[in-house]
Design brief:
80 residues, mainly alpha, single chain, 4 helices
Length: 80
């Protein structure tokens, strides 16, 4: 073998290197998605999140929320 042969990689080695890069990229992506989901689950566990979400929905559609509150009040008052 010459130094020129050692410098070149075989097709099998090139394929292995390419597969290793793909696997490393996939592992990094799975880690990123796992961290994202963990953050979302942790945020959903906090009770103020639901109040904030209701507040945002009320600001976005005040008439719709007023209608829901009115219908809910009518159903509650009717049962008494």
């Amino acid at each position: 073998m010459t130094d020129d042969d050692d410098a070149r990689t075989s097709p099998g080695q090139q394929g292995f290197d390419a597969a290793a890069r793909v696997v490393h990229a996939a592992v990094e992506e799975v880690d990123r998605v796992g961290r994202y989901l963990k953050d979302k689950v942790d945020a959903a566990k906090r009770p103020e999140t639901y109040v904030g979400m209701l507040k945002d929905v009320t600001k976005a559609a005040p008439l719709g929320m007023l209608a829901v509150a009115f219908i809910g009040g009518m159903l509650f008052a009717r049962r008494r």
